[in-house]
């Protein structure tokens, strides 16, 4: 009887975008608020580092916001509320409830089996494997938006999905494909 592969995967980063529907004075924000970086000659957005939850936001003068670093949608909401509170200190009142769009979810974990990446690099379609440059195999999972990094110890990173369900479905499909290929 073959040992059942034990999957464990968790979300490590959620990237979202939203709009506050207000013009934001980035120079004033940078001059007033701590934990900001603003260098308009190099990049048009202001970086705001949020301590709790530990996330970062790119804020643009148009009111567009990209938030990264959250591990749950609740942390996303708390981060956006923190930005709104910071703006209120500058007498900028956001009156809309920001519509949050998930752009990408990154998850990492293990599929519980060792992988021969040399064999997978040949047998598995939609892959790139150049061990001299990077120790992982890059695999675009057909029929999904998911892209995986696979490592020989069974560790994986999944990116390109937009929901936790997509992460789990793509990982299950990956495991099924690997089992068929490797007869495990």
Short description:
The chain is of the alpha+beta class. 27% of the residues lie in helices and 32% in strands.
H/E element order: EHEEEEHEHEEEEH
The number of helices is: 4
Radius of gyration: 20 Å
* Global shape: elongated
Output the strand order for the largest sheet. Answer: 2-3-4-5-1-6-10-9-8-7
- Supply the CATH architecture of the largest domain: 2-Layer Sandwich
Helix residue percentage: 25-40%
CATH top level label of the largest domain: Alpha Beta
Secondary structure tally: strands? 10
Strand content: 25-35%
| End-to-end separation | 10 Å
Instruction: Using the coordinates shown, work out and report the CATH topology of the largest domain.
Output: TATA-Binding Protein
Low-pLDDT parts are none
For the record, the count of structural domains works out to 2
The biggest beta sheet reads:
10 strands, antiparallel
Calculate the mean pLDDT score and round it: 94
The CATH fourth-level homologous superfamily of the largest domain: TATA-Binding Protein
In terms of structural class, how would the helical and strand content be classed?
Answer: alpha+beta
Topology:
Layout: E1 8-19, H1 26-32, E2 36-38, E3 46-50, E4 55-59, E5 64-70, H2 73-89, E6 101-110, H3 117-123, E7 127-128, E8 137-140, E9 147-150, E10 155-161, H4 164-182
Antiparallel strand pairs: 1-5, 1-6, 2-3, 3-4, 4-5, 6-10, 7-8, 8-9, 9-10
Describe the overall structure.
The protein is α+β, with helices and mostly antiparallel strands. It folds into 2 domains: 21-97, TATA-Binding Protein, CATH 3.30.310; 104-182, TATA-Binding Protein. The chain has 4 helices and 10 strands; from the N terminus they run βαββββαβαββββα. It has helices at 26-32, 73-89, 117-123, 164-182, and strands at 8-19, 36-38, 46-50, 55-59, 64-70, 101-110, 127-128, 137-140, 147-150, 155-161. It has a 10-stranded antiparallel sheet, covered by helices on one side. The protein is elongated and about 65 Å long. The relative contact order is 0.19.
